[in-house]
Amino acid sequence: MASRFFPSHRTGLALVAGCFLFSALAAANVRPGELSVSQIEEQLQNCPLVESLNEHKRATTPETASLTARIFAVLFPSSPAVNSLLATLYISGPPNFLLALCPPNIDPSSLSVMVAFAVGGLLGDTLFHLLPEIFLGEDSPDHVSFVMVEPNKNLLLGLGIMVGFFTFVAMDKALRIATGGEGHDHSHGSTAVLHGDESTVSALASGAANADSNAGELKQRKPTTSQQHSEKEEEKEKEINPSVKMAGYLNLIADFTHNITDGLALSSSFYASPTIGATTTVAVFFHEIPHEVGDFALLVQSGFSKRKAMGAQFVTAVGAFLGTLIGIAVQEFGGHGDILEDSAVSGLWGTSLSWGDMLLPFTAGTFLYVGTVAVIPELLETGRDKAVEVRKTIIQFLAVAVGAGIMLAISWD
């Protein structure tokens, strides 16, 4: 196999270990090209020099698990498939139930600090966990790790990241075209008209004002039955501008689609490693909370009652489970991890990659879009009061630092 091996720390040690490996293969009358990646890794671990490195690593690695590791072990105790479904349940259930505590007149713009915190978590997970895992693999506490340098493998991984990034660009662009320039905020922190034009924003504002004035008139009449209450809600919905109402429904469609990608992210992460899966779950959970609250506020402004808005959000959560099941199917039937443990047949375009290996780069690309293009414009928005904006900016940057710091601390442990 025309590949070179480099250990996690020193190139020279890898060359010596490689000499041991090829000596062992020659003694066994086996050519390197006849082995799979996992078999070559196993042969390397049997080299005397590598065994001594393994002993040194085990001696210097703390034996007790960190608190976060113990918590993750309780939350995710089973196989990658089961853990992916559990993670989807964690990120879909609690944020939706929190909507019961939200007032129907919540202002989505008030969530900017929470959005900044979620951005820090997403970018931290991408830069501290996903990208290192994609190109270098996960470190093991029991043995030294080797990285296989293959022609075109890194290119394919980079291509997967770009495909994930521009998939979200296409989704956002298509929705903006469908809504006449409104667009869905993939930052999961505000409304679907965050990047829309002024006419759309004014339409939402007028729709909300009409709903508030209508609600004030209804308060003057004391409801006597549940039927009267239902009639008042229907009357309230009729006052909403049709274009604003349509924006709410389109936002639900975009939300459902985006939740599918969240499910794909969770499944691909758990098949990569338990640690990557757990940290990705934390990052997705943090950005799901402002996402659900922001979309809830938009639906209320679009004419939904609080109960109907909550029900619609639960329906969109089905998209996350659908994405998770798709990801599990790709991993189970399309291969995952080191390709073909029992043979040396090449994978995608002559590399050792399988289709399952491409889900994690796709996830990283989507997270990069969510954490940058979809959110940074919102954080850059400023008002006329300079003192207020300076304080707001400092708080937002601190929130980003806290979110990224949590991901760094989990990775460090």
How would you briefly describe this protein structure?
It is built from 15 helices and 2 strands. It is mainly α. It is found in: Membrane.
Strand and helix map with partners:
Blueprint: E1 4-7, H1 11-27, H2 37-45, H3 48-60, H4 67-75, H5 80-97, H6 112-136, E2 146-149, H7 153-178, H8 198-219, H9 226-238, H10 242-272, H11 274-301, H12 306-334, H13 359-371, H14 376-380, H15 386-412
Antiparallel strand pairs: 1-2
Helix pairs in contact: 5-10, 5-11, 5-12, 6-11, 6-13, 6-15, 7-13, 8-9, 10-11, 10-12, 10-13, 11-12, 11-15
Provide tags for this entry.
mainly alpha, transmembrane helix, two-stranded antiparallel sheet, 413 residues, disordered N terminus
